[in-house]
């Protein structure tokens, strides 16, 4: 499964960025092959508005099937839902730890946004 | 318990406590301009310890006039784009004029059939896309600057929004983010934010994620009307709000009624400040009110004390919330 | 003739000047309250309501049957209001600025537009003053479109006064652009002077002549007067710093009615304003987006 984690840096040892729309970077991990890539979220960071929408488009194009982050706002959530990406919030620690939290069932799947818009 | 810990424990702000260690932000707003918000923030900056001040009133910033900052860093603020016609390549089809919904394409002079008024151009890019001779450039727009400074009260992050610049709140967000970085870097216990007037995007950008909002209002019909709108906004974003009435003695009945209205919105009443000529005198001298002293200064000290206790979740005599 | 009353700083007395000036001008006056986030003019005029219209921005609606997800709409959109996600196109109406670009570039003609309400324009009348005010819905992001809608309802004849929002950003520009004259209201304090300088710079970029009203004259120092003299700016009126004025304002009273001695001050401001030559012949009049959309 292709999992994207919002991150402060490019590597799997980077801290999870709790924001989605304005996350610094995305780290994509294929849990079957363990292949890892990272991408900038310049579109989201630069966006005046709709950072969450941009970020959703970016990770959708990366092929994400699942997103792990700290928090997700309402527009981002709608966009991710439309893109068919499962959302898990409440993650912390490093990217590797976040994926481990997902694997061991410690993260709950989000049914909706957990913060208001413009949170980050 | 430290302020930070007790704050996290007592305030019901969704999600904040769950995230990384977070310096609480008190955002001071007014709805209506001119209620004395900036003067109050300047005095709070003197009374507070270990504080980073963020001037988020980026469209006509004034706080620096009494805090006398020494600017350490200046950064440009680039946001959005603007359309510019390359007159040499223009074939005067008039397509830009037809499609622009903002009246930004106006008649040019001399050999220029059309020209784009940068003050009206919204940077939507439609004319750029549809010009049949591709004669329109779309450069990024310079919308102002932000600064990292130091003052006698500690670090100050402030900005200048450019003329006619889009006021989306993006520059406000940058100032807040930089203030958070400065607070984390300096081990500060609080961020004090001088917020923008109104209820639009800049205010939204200033208040989301704040630990609390203090509305500085005045006992006038305008003040009450605008306080309502700004308290609605705070409620919409689920941010705890407190209210203080400035210059209350110019209309004591008005002050009573505005406090009742604030309570109906669920806001905490943290005090009243008397009308005092010393407020203007302090400003003229480039000092804060509490540095000058007087009635308003005494009242501001009481309000500051109550605001701190409100943020910690404790009550004070005569008020429960 | 269109006269805007503006100010770099909030709370200097724009609305006070706009209202009292409107009451002092001869003949019918139209007063446009463009401070749509916090419209306050109506608090000082007992006006009979004459009409109320919900106004909005045209936002896209995508016909999923015609859409082929080519992504041209999303590529063009500068506001992230339309995105291709999964198997369809999603619109985020609250981000849309109503530019109409997506509908124009869609190769399949799959995009039409509907109005998304952002606020109301209310008209009322108080004696010789016809008030048109815009009121933005709380939580709405975009301010200038509502201001343009208020301005689109201005009369082409007679005197039109505009109560502009404070500041010098795009909202103030939308309110002031195309006026014949701008009255800048300030106070004789460092904050007042700082913001007056910003406002003067803005009005000069707009190419509109201006004059200054000093409110609470005597309360601070002389730097504003010195600045006006150095810049060749006419001081149109000085309203004294008088606690009675503050108290009358606090109660929602008009100064020309409540304070003896104020009426002649505003009468002379009115006479000065009536002598302003119009400069805007031929300037594009604001179009209502409702007309554009149809």
Q: What does this 3D model show about the protein?
A:
The complex is a heterotrimer of chains A (120), B (321) and C (294). Chain A is α/β, with parallel strands linked by helices and 120 residues long. Chain A has helices at 42-46, 51-62, 74-82, 95-103, and strands at residues 2-7, 25-30, 36-40, 66-68, 86-88. Chain A starts with a strand and ends in a 17-residue tail after the last helix. With 321 residues, chain B is of the alpha/beta class. Chain B has two domains: 3-78 and 144-312, P-loop containing nucleotide triphosphate hydrolases (Rossmann fold, 3-Layer(aba) Sandwich); 83-138, Alpha-Beta Plaits (2-Layer Sandwich). Chain B is built from twelve helices and 13 strands. A nine-stranded mixed beta sheet of chain B has the order 3-8-9-2-10-1-11-12-13, with helices on both faces. In chain B, strands 4-7 form a two-stranded antiparallel sheet. Chain B has a two-stranded antiparallel ribbon with strand order 5-6. Chain B starts with a helix and ends in a 9-residue tail after the last helix. Chain C folds into two domains: 2-54 and 122-274, 3-Layer(aba) Sandwich (Rossmann fold); 56-116, Alpha-Beta Plaits, CATH 3.30.70. Chain C has a nine-stranded mixed beta sheet with strand order 3-6-7-2-8-1-9-10-11, sandwiched between helices. The two termini of chain C are 29 Å apart. Chains in contact: A-B, A-C, B-C. Chains A and C meet through helix 2 and helix 3 of A and strand 4 of C.
Average of the residue pLDDT scores of chain A = 88
CATH-derived topology of chain A? Nucleotidyltransferase, domain 5
State the separation between the terminal residues of chain A, measured CA to CA: 28 Å
Question: Count the strands of chain A?
Answer: 5
**Whole-number average pLDDT of chain B?**
88
- C-alpha-based Rg of chain A, rounded: 12 Å
Tally of alpha and pi helices of chain A: 4
CATH class of the largest domain in chain B equals Alpha Beta
The helicity of chain A comes to: 25-40%
The residue ranges of chain A in which pLDDT falls below 50 over 5 or more consecutive positions are none
Major sheet of chain A, described briefly?
5 strands, mixed
Overall tally of structural domains of chain B: 2
Order of helices and strands of chain B: HEHEHEEHEEHEEEHEHEHEHEHHH
Q: Give, in spatial order, the strands making up the sheet with the most strands of chain B.
A: 3-8-9-2-10-1-11-12-13
Order of helices and strands of chain A: EEEHHEHEH
Shape of chain B: elongated
């Amino acid at each position: 499964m292709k999992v994207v984690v919002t991150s402060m840096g490019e590597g799997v040892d980077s801290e999870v960025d709790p924001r989605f729309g304005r996350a610094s970077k995305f780290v994509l991990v294929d849990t079957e092959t363990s292949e890892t890539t990272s991408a900038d979220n310049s579109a989201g960071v630069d966006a005046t508005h709709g950072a969450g929408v941009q970020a959703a488009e970016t990770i959708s194009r990366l092929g994400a099937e699942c997103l792990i982050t700290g928090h997700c706002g309402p527009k981002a959530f709608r966009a991710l839902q439309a893109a068919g990406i499962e959302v898990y919030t409440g993650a912390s620690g490093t990217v590797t730890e976040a994926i481990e939290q997902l694997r061991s069932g410690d993260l709950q799947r989000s049914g909706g946004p957990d913060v208001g818009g413009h949170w980050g | 318990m430290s302020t930070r810990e007790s704050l996290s424990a007592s305030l019901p702000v969704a999600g904040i406590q769950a995230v990384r260690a977070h310096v609480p932000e008190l955002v001071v707003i007014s709805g209506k301009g001119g209620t004395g918000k900036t003067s109050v923030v300047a005095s709070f900056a003197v009374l507070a310890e270990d504080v980073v001040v963020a001037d988020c009133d980026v469209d006509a910033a004034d706080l620096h006039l009494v805090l006398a900052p020494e600017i350490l860093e200046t950064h440009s603020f680039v946001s959005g784009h603007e359309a510019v016609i390359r007159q040499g390549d223009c074939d005067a089809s008039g397509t830009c004029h037809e499609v622009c919904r903002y009246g930004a394409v106006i008649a040019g002079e001399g050999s220029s059939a059309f020209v784009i008024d940068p003050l009206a151009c919204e940077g939507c890019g439609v004319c750029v896309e549809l010009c049949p001779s591709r004669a329109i450039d779309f450069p990024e727009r310079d919308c102002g600057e932000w600064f990292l400074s130091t003052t006698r009260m500690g670090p100050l992050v402030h900005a200048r929004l450019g003329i006619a610049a889009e006021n989306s709140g993006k520059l406000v967000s940058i100032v807040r983010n930089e203030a958070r970085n400065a607070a984390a870097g300096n081990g500060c216990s609080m961020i004090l934010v001088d917020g923008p007037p109104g209820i639009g995007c800049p205010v939204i950008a200033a208040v989301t994620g704040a630990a609390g909002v203090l509305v500085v209002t005045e006992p006038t019909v305008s003040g009450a009307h605008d306080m309502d709108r700004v308290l609605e906004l705070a409620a919409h974003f689920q941010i705890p709000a407190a209210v203080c009435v400035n210059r209350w003695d110019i209309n004591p009945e008005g002050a009573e009624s505005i406090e009742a209205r604030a309570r109906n919105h669920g806001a905490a009443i943290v005090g009243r400040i008397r009308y005092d000529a010393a407020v203007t005198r302090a400003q003229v001298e480039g000092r804060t009110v509490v540095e000058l002293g007087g009635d308003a200064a005494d009242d501001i000290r009481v309000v500051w004390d109550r605001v701190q206790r409100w943020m910690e979740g404790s009550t004070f005599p005569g008020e429960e919330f | 003739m269109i006269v805007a009353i503006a100010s770099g700083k909030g709370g200097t007395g724009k609305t006070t000047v706009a209202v009292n000036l409107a009451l002092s001008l001869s003949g019918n006056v139209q007063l446009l309250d463009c401070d749509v986030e916090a419209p306050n003019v109506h608090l000082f005029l007992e006006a009979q309501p004459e009409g109320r219209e919900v106004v909005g921005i045209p936002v896209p609606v995508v016909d999923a049957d015609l859409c082929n997800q080519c992504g041209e709409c999303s590529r063009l959109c500068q506001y992230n209001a339309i995105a291709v996600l999964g198997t369809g196109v999603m619109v985020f109406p609250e981000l849309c600025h109503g530019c109409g670009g997506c509908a124009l570039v869609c190769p399949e003609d799959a995009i039409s537009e509907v109005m998304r309400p952002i606020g109301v324009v209310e008209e009322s009348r108080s004696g010789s003053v016809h008030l048109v005010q815009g009121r933005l819905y709380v939580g709405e992001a975009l301010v200038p479109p509502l201001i343009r809608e208020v301005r689109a309802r201005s009369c082409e004849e007679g005197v039109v006064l505009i109560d502009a929002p404070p500041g010098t950003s795009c909202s103030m520009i939308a309110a002031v652009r195309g006026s014949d004259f701008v009255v800048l209201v300030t106070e004789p304090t460092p904050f007042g002077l700082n913001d007056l300088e910003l406002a003067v710079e803005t009005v000069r970029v707009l190419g509109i002549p201006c004059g200054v009203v000093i409110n609470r004259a005597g309360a601070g120092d002389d730097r504003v007067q010195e600045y006006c003299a150095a810049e060749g700016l006419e001081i149109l009126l000085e309203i004294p710093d008088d606690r009675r004025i503050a108290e009358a304002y606090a109660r929602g009273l008009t100064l020309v009615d409540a304070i003896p001695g104020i009426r002649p001050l505003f009468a002379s401001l009115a006479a000065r304003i009536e002598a302003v030559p119009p400069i805007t012949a031929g300037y594009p009049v604001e179009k209502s987006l409702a007309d554009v959309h149809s």
